[in-house]
Design goal:
- With 363 residues, this protein is an alpha/beta fold.
- The protein is built from eight helices and ten strands.
- Strands 3-2-4-1-10 form a five-stranded mixed beta sheet, sandwiched between helices.
- β5 and β6 form a beta hairpin.
Length: 363
Amino acid sequence: THLRRCLAPMPMRLSLTLMLLLSPLLGCDTIGDDTPLDPTPITLSPLAKDLVAQGNTFGVNLFAEVAAEDDGNLMLSPLSASVALTMLLNGSDGDTFAQIRDMLGVAPEADLAEINAAYRSLRDQLLAADDEVQFTLANAVFQNTLQTGAFPLKTPFVDAMREGFDARVGGFEFTAPEALGTVNGWASDNTNGRVPVVLNELNPDLVLLLMNALYFKGDWSTPFDADNTSDGDFMLADGSTTRVPMMSDKVQAITIAGDGYTGVELPYGRKNFSMVVLQPTSGPLADFALTLREGLWADVTSRLDQSDAWRDVAVGLPRFTFETDKVLNAQLDALGMVDAFTRAADLSRISDDPNLQVSFVKQ
């Protein structure tokens, strides 16, 4: 039971910020000959396998929730969201903990320390998997030292951030002239300069920023020949077409087809990382996004996992640049993370102050 002790609006005390960068998808270098190298083995514990599967489910659910309200181009990072929200999970308790846990699909019996260890192991292996891929996954916890006396961070939470998430933990006055530069500088440093600004201001009422930065840039296992790029017709969601630069070539890939879709998997580097492109065979894109939530993505990944039929495939893709900036409060609330944004939030594993709540989740 949570008591509401006052009717006046209470300041939002905790901010959770997510950041994402995907680098240009077109690689320019070959790797040996035209045959992709074997992927580096990744060792997953049973818990880690469950977390990966649950993370995929959460990711497509979040995508479908956003797509239902946004009919434009859309880009999300489920991994970035899952990591940052798992950091928040470490600071939550009671109903708030249960809601975030259930939204992420974590089994009720899973031990939090084991979850952190499984994430750390997976992160370390992914970062070292392929020298031909530039991949960064960084975390940070920044505390407003103007509030430090009133809201001291609990040692177990800080230890979990440092040990489980290899997070940079630090503090400074959010009103200081250099404060915003520190936050944006961290984002820029961990995204190879691609995200130079993540916040335009720091509200002095904020107590904490939980931050995750993801950077990926990979060369195709078999690259597209730049000389084969030319303008072509690209069909838009409304059925009309527009002329865009299209890169095309015969490249190593796996093709799949299922109920209502066709697709292709294009590997990077040693094939530890790949891009899966899906195209609906009929109906609007919005309906296809809802189908993803209903299990289509699980069907796609299952088919791909059962196949190692890499072969030369004629592929044509548009070249594009895309930027996005989106607050995800409403979508996460719809997926079950309700209390965290309200006075009912229980973030007592971060601090004993009962007034902490999440002000925004941004990617």
